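U., I forgot to send this yesterday:
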Amino acid sequence: MSEQTIQPIERILFPTDFSPAADAAFAYAERLACSTGAELLVLHVPQDVPTVGPLENPDREKKRQLQAVGSRMSDIKIERMFYAGAPGEVICWIAQEHRCDQIVIGTHGRTGLINLLLGSVAEYVVRHARCPVLTVPSRPRDEAPLKDPSLSYPPPMIQPL
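Result:
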């Protein structure tokens, strides 16, 4: 195993669609930024804009929502931006161009047919990002705890050497 120098986390990308799943992910991004001293780059990629590139005049309500994404910790530096395009591609590209060390993204927990038909931005980001990605699932507060692990039965056959 080769010895690698571990680089500090200096910039974290937090993409948001202003959903409850994104709110849950922001709590993790905020804690990570606070514990590492990293800057947060908060990104919104509107789905309804037919162009690609930085948005100079975003929708007034979305602009208000993006400004409202803020840290309760005053020592965290936050940069906010709008960028139009395919969300997964834009998120990965922005992370690369801004030299982000980490992406923290919320997941809606959609599976099966919905994910097959619509795709998943978080899945795309996990597969294509050039930096580590932390996914934060959206879970109901009253979700049942996991069951104890069980032994697979019958036990696997042990082959003689």
